[in-house]
Amino acid sequence: MRLQERLSDHFALRDPHKAMLVGIRELAPEITARTAEIEAARRIPPDLVERLRSIGIFRMFVPRSEGGLELDFPAGLEVIKALARLDGSIGWIAVVAGASSLFVAASPAELYKRIYQDGPDTAICGSSQPGGTAERVSGGYRVKGRWPFASGCTHADWIGGFCIVTENGKPIPGPQGKPLLRVVALPARDWDVEDTWHAAGLKGTGSHHVTLRETLVPEANFFDLEAAPRQSGPLYQALRQWLPLLHGAFSVGLAEGMVDDLLALAHTGRQQLYAAVPMRESETFQYELGRISADLGAAQGFHEVQVAGHWRHAQSGTLNNEDLVIEGARSATWLATTCVGIADACFALAGSSAVYDTSPLQRRLRDIHVAAQHAHAQQRQYVDVGKLALRRSAEDAA
Question: Per the database record, which ranges form the Acyl-CoA dehydrogenase C-terminal domain (predicted)?
Fold first, then answer.
């Protein structure tokens, strides 16, 4: 029996969400033991990718009609948080797996069938930066470009990239006068991967550049994200509203892991130089830990409320709303900032032992700072949040 068939039978017999969380707990000791290997390789080792595939991370948001799990969105975010809590790079790959499934749900039926022709555990990645051009020609497009931050490209089966559509070498106007963008999706074997991922954190994500050099691509390999939903169900009626919430789940999971590591260090009985008592007996340590715990609880609560609100809209068919994009951006930005603060405080409390490569605290610190550089977490998001608050207050006063 093929792996895909065995996995389908496995999930059919069990609650898929609970089965995934159990699988993550069983895999946790191996992930923890191999974090240095993951960083050194700058990718997730192939055997661990297969273990994650067997847990179901590549199928969690794939429709049941394609053999996927089609988890409720809050349940899928629990899976991402659980993995980010263990390791930042693996948590990030889980975000990519979930987001990519939702991206390609906008593709035409023929392309969608090709992507999942070998089963629902197809690994997809891509870059949302418009790093390429697609010149209109007879029968399709002539594509060329170089796309950054293609996380997971070292184990991907399919890769996608945003292209500026051109005609006679000039960009074609799209909505609001901006250049028209389309997504090109091709099997991973058709792309070149440039070894560029030498980064401060999230080292194991393999977020290299990917390139296409003057490639003739049929129309059938393109799709538009602004097209009407092609899949039924609450998961697939919109995309941009989900993306900041995926980032928020990662931030919270990584912060939870940081606190776990600080507590583990305290429970070793460590006593810092010149300290009168061990860390866990120090009132200074206890005070700071209490403040960190409050910040973490606030982050967890805010994210849960935001996710629940978005999911209610998805279930009622009202998710495709620009205000919800801004609300999600607000939560992602605040969560990233707050969780960076939690990580910084944990690292400082840990003292000099945290500076060594062997300390998980320094790795998580680097990971969360790099994640906070993502576009979904940038402080400029607050401009739109402020505009929304002003508009709503004016509407309330009218």
Answer: 245-378
